[in-house]
């Protein structure tokens, strides 16, 4: 909890030194992964896959740990309205029940904002966008999800400014659902959304190439 209010940059080397992971443990995992996959892949593929996995794992692990700590929620009646119970992180009517926000950043274009309070937590995610095509795909994808927010229970219809999608978890959610499953859902979303955007981009490029070839064929 002492980390709240700070921005953590999660490039692989700085993060490993921040959490003080034993070097032998990291090297052991790396060697194990290379040995298991070395028979079916080229050495260069093994190295690139290992580096990508090692760079993503600390980022997701830090988000998981921070979110698990922030989800220590309790029922709390509104101090501004009698007989009302509202998410304090949204109402912002009682500053004394709001905790310091935490930003976990993998890089400038990929980060998570965790805003905790006594009875609710707001989680905002900025999805990696390398070019204009990915900007459009992310916008369409997140818009598709937010229009169906009621089906996801914890999904916020409008994301926080500067982020692509936001989740709102209240004490009611943690009482009715398993807390670790809520954390698993957000982590899995972060893992899968990049894959979805990449697949859509590949499909879009392949379709554009096919259309261009079909259009230019009569002129050959």
Q: Which structural class should the secondary elements be placed in?
A: alpha+beta
Number of domains: 1
| Alpha carbon gap, first and last residue | 66 Å
Subunit arrangement of the protein: single chain
The overall strand count is 5
Give a short account of the largest sheet: 5 strands, mixed
For the record, the CATH architecture stands as 2-Layer Sandwich
How much helical structure, as a percent, in the residues? 40-55%
Report the radius of gyration as a whole number of Å: 21 Å
Chain-averaged pLDDT: 78
Give the CATH topology: Yope Regulator, Chain: A
Could you give the topology of this structure?
Elements: E1 7-9, H1 12-19, H2 23-37, H3 43-70, H4 88-91, E2 102-107, E3 110-116, E4 120-126, H5 132-146, E5 165-170, H6 171-176, H7 179-216
Parallel strand pairs: 1-2
Antiparallel strand pairs: 2-3, 3-4, 4-5
Helix pairs in contact: 2-3, 3-7, 5-7
């Amino acid at each position: 909890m002492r980390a709240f209010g700070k921005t953590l940059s999660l490039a692989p080397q700085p993060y490993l030194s921040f959490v003080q992971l034993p070097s032998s443990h990291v090297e052991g995992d790396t060697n194990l992964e290379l040995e298991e996959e070395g028979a079916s892949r080229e050495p260069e593929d093994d190295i690139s896959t290992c580096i990508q996995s090692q760079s993503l794992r600390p980022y997701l692990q830090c988000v998981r740990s921070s979110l698990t700590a922030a989800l220590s929620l309790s029922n709390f009646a509104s101090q501004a309205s009698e007989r009302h119970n509202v998410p304090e992180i949204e109402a912002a009517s009682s500053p004394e029940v709001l905790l310091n926000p935490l930003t976990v950043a993998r890089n400038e274009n990929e980060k998570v904002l965790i805003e905790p309070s006594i009875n609710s937590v707001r989680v905002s995610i900025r999805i990696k966008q390398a070019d204009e095509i990915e900007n459009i795909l992310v916008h369409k994808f997140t818009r598709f999800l937010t229009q169906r927010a009621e089906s996801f229970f914890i999904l916020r219809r409008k994301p926080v400014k500067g982020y692509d999608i936001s989740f709102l978890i209240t004490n009611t959610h943690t009482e009715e659902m398993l807390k670790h499953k809520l954390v698993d859902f957000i982590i899995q979303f972060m893992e899968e959304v990049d894959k979805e955007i990449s697949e859509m981009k590949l499909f879009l490029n392949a379709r554009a190439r096919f259309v261009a070839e079909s259009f230019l064929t009569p002129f050959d």
